[in-house]
Amino acid sequence: xxxxxxxxxxxGNIVSMAIGLAVxxxxxxxxxxxxxxxxxxxxxxxTGSVGDFSEAKFTLGKTVFPYGLAIAAAIAxxxxxxxxxxxxxxxxxxxxxxxxxxxxxxxxSAKRDCPRCFTEIPAIASRCAHCTSEVEPTxxxxxxxxxxx
Length: 149
Known about the structure:
two-stranded antiparallel ribbon; 3 helices
C-alpha cells in the first residue's frame, strides 16, 4: 500500500506540478510586493490620497469597506497575468511553433473527380472504384506509392 503511494508521489508530473506551484507562489509574492511598494503608492499620489492607496476605505453606518485592498489586489493580478503572458506564454508558444513537426498528410485525404464517371476518388488512385476505369494518379504522393495493377 505504501509502495503505491510512493510511486504516485514520485511520478514526474506530480513533482513538476509541485515545483510549478512553489515557483508560482514565489512569483506572486514578488509581484504583490512590487505592486504594494511602487504601483499602489503611485496610484495614491495620482488620486490625491496620502501614502498607500490600499488603505483607502469608506464607512457606511458602522461598516467599513476597504475598497483600496480590492483595487490593489486587482492591480497585482493584472500585473502578474501580464508578466506571465509576455514573459512565459508568448515565448513558449514561439518555441513550440518553431519545433512543431508538420503532420504527415494522409495521401487518401486529397480527392478528385474520375474523368469518366465524375465520382469522387482519392487523388492517388490509379483506378476508379465506381466505373473501374484506369486513371492517372495526380498527387505528388503517387510517386511514393506503387500503383496496384
